[in-house]
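Entry:
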Amino acid sequence: MDIISELESEFEALRTGQLDNKPAEVVRVEHLGGVSFLVDLVVGSDFVAGTVDQKLLVFPTSAVVMIAANVMPELQQKSLSDLLAAQRNPVRVNFSLRNQLRKGWLLSEHGPWLRIAAERKVVWCPISVVTLIEVSAVENL
């Protein structure tokens, strides 16, 4: 690639805000569980996700109160079900039951129901009670 083509592509990336060496925007997401500061925000049809401390945090839109960002990312045509189906299970999940936050491991997703290992048993929860899904690398000890 010649120098003119490189400069043109850098200028186009700068003009559209897609320059690779630009620091990522930290976005404040207020949700039912508190406040999180996320990088690489993704907005799906029914979820908001971003990274923090090498983890992917996913919030159903029903759990999001407000997003503070300079620019809202383009809406992705992916649903929470699509995102969950693409993950290697198990992944960490927080869910609310009778206003009490519970933690468990997402084992599988079946339509509107999630199969979760929690409190030494397997429970089935509607996805509507999930407030946070945390995807992180599972290390074998």
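The CA atoms of residues 116 and 123 lie 5 Å apart.
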